[in-house]
Each structure stands twice: as structure tokens, then as C-alpha cells.
Hints:
Largest sheet: 5 strands, parallel
Strand order of the largest sheet: 2-1-3-4-5
CATH class: Alpha Beta
Low-confidence stretches: none
CATH superfamily: Response regulator
Number of strands: 5
Distance between the termini: 36 Å
Number of domains: 1
Oligomer: single chain
Strand content: 15-25%
Mean pLDDT: 85
Amino acid sequence: MQVGRIDVLVVEDDTAVRTSTAAILRDAGYGVDEAEDGFVALERLKEAPVGAVVLDVRMEGLDGFGVLDKLEDPPPVVLVTVHEYDADVMAHRSKIVTYMQKAGPAT
């Protein structure tokens, strides 16, 4: 867990994507913490104030939409997904600043 200022919590179950996203944000000067799943993300959000969350949608256990459902007053959320979830994104739009599609596996 990050000690000190946490500007962004990166929630992503793919280790390579999570660590590279966190590294980019750290290089830009942000205080970053990482969570490998939705359950860990909820714990991190209880432990310390967070300025924003970069949240993957598809994760084992508690997915990104499940995290959003459990947060009454979340910090700004950028939702990241390989898939298009127009209906689900619209259902959660009050808790999402924006969403981005990441590249999927090569076919």
C-alpha cells in the first residue's frame, strides 16, 4: 500500500497493465496506490482519501461495476474496459467521469 498522498488508485487485475499505468502516473508526479481486484480497492478506499480511481471493469470476484455499486460517494472514476458496456456505463454514469476502451488481445 502507498504511504503518503494518494492522488490515484489504479484498480486492475492484469499485473502488467496495472503496474505500467501506475508507473506512468507516478512519472507524471501523482501519488499512486494499486489494487489487484475490487475487494482490495474497497479496502484501500476505506483506508485513505483518494483523489481519483482508474477502474477496470472486468475482474474476477468483484468487478468494476460491483465496486461502483458499493460506493455511495466515490471520488472521480475513469472506467477502463476492453469491452463496450453502453447500458452498464449509462446505468453508472453518475459515478463515472469518463470511460476508455483499452486494446484487447490480438486476434
